[in-house]
């Protein structure tokens, strides 16, 4: 276990503070007071006796970014794809070749890259949980990363459609890893990801939902990104499945208006994987889906999906979404409003928190919430000069501009430097595992 930095008493002073709190708005300049992991106050001229004052002039301070859907087990295989050999073939050829230690190294690689890029919460959508040892390896990586997360236990890749997810090990994981909050420092919560009607039989899906609901576990499902889907949100609503943030749907590009309306009525969120919808979304123009979901009142969050498709860069997701989120002449979107900078920021922060059911804890710089925040250098050559700060965050900022990252009141990155993790060692181990997986897979991936 890496040494955990202490939670401190900090006054972040002089920054442009993007709170993502509708009551507090943007303060320029502003202050954020953090004590023992909690945001105590946000404002100006705060009483901060005994606090370490951090000079944040020429900085942008905002909530940490939140990912709502990421297959983290395959992070070390991000570059297994090549021309004519894309995500799905590469995944299918390698998914059975990962040993538990490879899972540990892959999830740690992804988690530490995430915090380095200003992502303070990840949703580890583990859709290749091969054995109990693989699950333990992923959770060990979460424990060591100190990044906030949902761990969604799922099936192994290519599980037959008529074979159910075995909840026996989920019960073991719930007891051993989540029975005592101290085990994961209260930063990780447990969920399940189910294949859903598109990737499993109806009988299996409904039986799995029943088992998850009996245990009170939040459920996540995929829909096909093609032109049709078996997922029917109206039917799910009638069955009582659309239980707010306890039921998260990813992709759903083929959603009908009635599906979106059902999701909005039940506060059921969507995970929109910007790059993936563009590359793999064969259901039509994802621009239209993004605008339609927003106008229907669905909570839309952003996600990475897999690093074979998208970079670990939610700033880029915001940028691309803003550029693509425009009305399109001659389509039903023609009279809709374009996506705004503020909406993009909300989709990458508070909406992600809502999608994971943790918006009471994180997602905005609201007093009483946990201190998950990032500090961005506004004086960097690709960012300065700042005029409209929301435009700057969406259009100009990249992970390279993230100066400091605080999760639950602990600085894990400060002054551009990771404080609790050895990136060189993490990369070396990931390279070692990636080579081993390629050798086991053979064929086109063989390095020999």
What does this entry look like structurally?
- This protein is an alpha/beta fold and about 450 residues long.
- The chain folds into two domains: about 10-65 and about 365-415, Urease, subunit C, domain 1 (Roll); about 65-355, Metal-dependent hydrolases (TIM Barrel, Alpha-Beta Barrel).
- Helix content is about 35%, strand content about 20%.
- The protein contains 15 helices and 17 strands.
- It has helices at about 85-95, 100-115, 130-145, 170-180, 195-200, 200-215, 235-240, 255-265, 275-280, 285-295, 315-325, 340-350, 350-355, 390-395, 425-440, and strands at about 10-20, 25-35, 40-45, 50-55, 60-65, 65, 120-125, 150-155, 190-195, 220, 245-250, 270, 300, 375, 400-405, 410-415, 415-420.
- The strands form two sheets. Strands 1, 2, 3, 4, 5, 14, 15, 16 and 17 form a nine-stranded mixed beta sheet that branches.
- Helix 3 links the parallel strand 7 and strand 8.
- The mean pLDDT is about 95.
Write the layout of secondary structure elements.
Layout: E1 9-18, E2 26-35, E3 38-43, E4 52-55, E5 59-63, E6 65-66, H1 87-94, H2 100-116, E7 119-126, H3 132-145, E8 148-153, H4 168-178, E9 188-194, H5 196-199, H6 202-214, E10 219-222, H7 233-238, E11 247-250, H8 257-265, E12 270-272, H9 274-280, H10 286-296, E13 300-302, H11 314-324, H12 341-348, H13 350-355, E14 373-377, H14 389-395, E15 402-407, E16 410-414, E17 417-418, H15 423-441
Parallel strand pairs: 1-4, 1-5, 6-7, 7-8, 8-9, 9-10, 10-11, 11-12, 12-13
Antiparallel strand pairs: 1-2, 2-3, 5-14, 14-15, 15-16, 16-17
Helix pairs in contact: 2-3, 2-15, 11-12, 12-14
């Amino acid at each position: 276990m890496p040494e955990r930095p202490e939670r401190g008493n900090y006054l972040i002073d002089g920054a442009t503070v993007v709170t993502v709190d509708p009551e507090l708005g943007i303060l320029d300049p502003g202050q954020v007071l953090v004590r023992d992991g909690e945001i105590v106050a946000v404002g100006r001229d705060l009483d901060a006796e005994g606090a370490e004052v951090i000079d944040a002039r020429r900085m942008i301070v905002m909530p940490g970014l939140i990912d709502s859907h990421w297959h983290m087990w395959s992070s070390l295989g991000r570059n297994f794809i090549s021309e004519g050999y894309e995500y799905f073939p590469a995944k299918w050829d390698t998914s059975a070749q990962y040993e538990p230690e490879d899972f540990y190294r892959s999830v740690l690689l992804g988690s530490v890259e995430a915090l380095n890029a200003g992502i303070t919460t990840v949703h580890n959508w583990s859709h290749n949980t091969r054995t109990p040892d693989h699950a333990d390896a992923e959770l060990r990586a979460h424990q060591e990363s100190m990044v906030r997360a949902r761990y969604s236990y799922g099936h192994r890749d290519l599980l037959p459609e008529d074979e159910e997810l075995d909840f026996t090990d989920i019960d073991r994981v719930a007891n051993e890893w989540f029975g005592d909050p101290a085990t994961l420092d209260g930063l990780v919560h447990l969920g399940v990801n189910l294949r859903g009607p598109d990737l499993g039989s109806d009988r299996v899906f409904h039986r799995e939902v029943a088992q998850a609901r009996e245990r009170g576990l939040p459920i996540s499902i995929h829909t096909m990104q093609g032109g049709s889907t078996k997922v029917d949100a109206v039917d799910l609503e009638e069955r009582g499945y659309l239980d707010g943030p306890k039921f998260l749907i990813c992709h759903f590009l083929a959603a009908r208006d009635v599906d979106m309306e059902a999701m909005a009525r039940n506060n059921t969120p969507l995970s929109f994987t910007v790059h993936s919808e563009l590359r793999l979304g064969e259901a039509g123009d994802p621009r239209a889906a993004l605008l339609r979901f927003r106008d229907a009142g669905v909570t839309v969050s952003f996600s990475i999906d897999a690093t074979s498709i998208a970079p670990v860069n939610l700033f880029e997701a915001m940028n691309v979404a803003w550029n693509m989120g425009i009305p399109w002449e001659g389509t039903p979107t023609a009279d809709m409003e374009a996506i705004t900078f503020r909406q993009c920021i909300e989709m990458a922060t508070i909406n992600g928190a809502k999608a994971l059911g943790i918006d009471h804890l994180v997602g905005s710089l609201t007093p009483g919430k946990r201190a998950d925040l990032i500090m961005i250098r506004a004086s960097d050559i690709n960012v300065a000069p700042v005029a409209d700060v929301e435009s700057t965050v969406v259009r100009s900022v990249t992970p390279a501009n993230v100066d400091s990252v605080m999760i639950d009141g602990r600085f894990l990155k400060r002054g551009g430097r990771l404080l609790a993790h050895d990136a060189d060692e993490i990369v070396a181990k990931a390279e070692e595992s990636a080579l081993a997986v390629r050798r086991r897979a053979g064929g086109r991936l063989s390095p020999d």
